[in-house]
Specification:
- The protein has helices spanning 29-39, 55-59, 108-117; strands spanning 16-26, 43-44, 63-67, 73-78, 96-103, 122-129, 132-138, 144-149.
- The chain is an alpha+beta fold.
- β3 (63-67) and β4 form a beta hairpin.
Amino acid sequence: MQSSTTPKTILVAGNLRKVHHIALNVQDMQASRHFYGHILGLHELTGAQVPATLVELVNAGKVANFVTPDGTILDLFWEPELAPPDPNPDNKFTRAYHLAFDIDPRLFEQALAVLKENHIAIAHGPVTRPTGRGVYFYDPDGFMIEIRCDPQTTSAS
């Protein structure tokens, strides 16, 4: 077992570029869409604006996506049976689903190594989607965090 004073590899300031999206579990999708779209005035993504990985869920009424004034995406996930907090982080225990940080695709593998070296249990992933790669894990209080990156593009150097 490592001593708590043993230096560990960490992500340095600047590796995480921005909050990519915030995902909230909502019990009443229509009320939430009305609140975020009409009362707060956020733009709801529709049609071709919806990320390819979410089109099926959006079309089924299980997800709605909004854009905040700073460009952060707010994803609403319909959970009609949403219950009060649960001590098991694998259970949906809060209305917030996860916080996603964006990272340069060239640093994604380094981020995975940092998680492994620091014995951070991976909830799921890494996953690869048309919108990029992601890995999900829990913070010390059981709140899910994602580190994700856009698809890596090939460029002539």
